[in-house]
Amino acid sequence: MTSFNDSFGLSFTATSADSIFAYEALMPKFLGFRREMMKDLAALLEADPEMPMANLAKGYFMKMSGARELTPIADQQRALVKGMAGRLNPREAMHLTALGQWCDGDMDGATETWEALLRETPLDPLALRLAHFTHFYSGDGRKLRDSMAHALPNWPEDHPCYGFLLGMYGFGLEESGDYAKAEQFGRRAVEINPEDAWSVHSVAHCLEMTERHAEGIEFTRALEPAWSKVNNFRYHLHWHRGLYHIERGEFAEVLDLYDNHFGRDVDTPYYLDMVNATSMLWRLEMFGADVGDRWQTLADIAAKRIQDDELIFVSLHYFMALISSGADADVTAMMAHLEEWAERPTTQGRITKQAGLSVARGMLELRRRNYDAAVKELYAVRYGMDPLGGSHAQRDIFWMMLAEAASKGSDPKLALTLLAERTARKPHSAWGWERYADCLSGGGQGDRAEAARATAKELVAH
Fold first, then answer.
1. CA atoms within 13 A on the CB side of 175
2. What is the pTM of this model?
3. Which of 66, 79, 364, 368 could make a disulfide contact with 310, Cβ separation 3.0–4.6 Å?
4. Is there a contact between 23 and 5 (Cβ–Cβ < 8 Å)?
5. What CATH number is attached to the domain comprising 181?
6. Rounded CA separation 238/216 (Å)
């Protein structure tokens, strides 16, 4: 094994320079969600089976899948590279440490290791994207933003991954609330590469958070020939388009997107497919749409995921499917698993204990129409749900559940408080105004209720 540098000075241990070129070509495919990425990595490992960074990348990719059955492969990759310890350069050794921390359940520690690595070698695209991933699943938009902010000035604009970084920075800006600046960076990234699905996604988030629903539909639809070339992440962009349609009361369009896109290929190890599907069905039902028997297919898949313990955010969406299909035995089994998970000394175990259990119990009570019990659970953690991970747009469903439960519960003043907050935060959401109108009407405030209901009708009409 020999030390080689890539085109931008990163040092690698490998058997030949060809391995470095292959690894360098792999990174834009990784950042771009290309379907051929795993096949190209397999070819690299076949040609150079002892290349440390190729083996570490395989371990990382298994962890990013969020699937319990792929976790042992990540452990195997860690053990394999650990056996090469005497040949690793400092950056490779830090990657080994980070993979080990992640495999041991210490996501916070892994993130800190990647950030330390990036201070030494900021041009490492793998470390940058992995830190982006775990910052995202910490729910801290400031860290998501700042991780990119301190790396980006070091990157030359002719780097093949540069456009991807702009989109990641845009997403961090969006999740930290700077929507105008976020949109500028996201759109610049999309101009560089319209096939960059993450950057299209960054702009889609800006349009969602600023409630520009018609513009969001037009934006995502116009770019679909480009972003639809990627792996299953393309379904998440169809899901985003569904969010715009649902706010416009266009439920038939949402169900069409579900049946033909993001609800079609859900039985895969890629967790985001189930997250998309379950969260949208729950939203549709809260909006008053009939989703037919679609829950049962999702529940059958979720039943195989009861023991998954990679990301509590994902497991909560599996739980949605189980409690929505009436699978009582599976619901009991999964709740027992969540309670056990909450006692583990891991990053996700801590988050499950802090917020995940309350959200799961709240969802279950809401499904059982025990509205006051649901409010009690969800209200207790309403400002502590960010660490569950996911985006503001994704976590919004938990806030909607709280508002839904309160609007049907026995405390009308609390319901009015929560719906007033909702309409202030999302003034272009017809759903929020309709719920607010119901609460105002129930509280004897007929004139205000009429005005709120008129606002909802106007929003749907336009």
1. 31
2. 0.96
3. 66
4. no
5. 1.25.40.10
6. 11
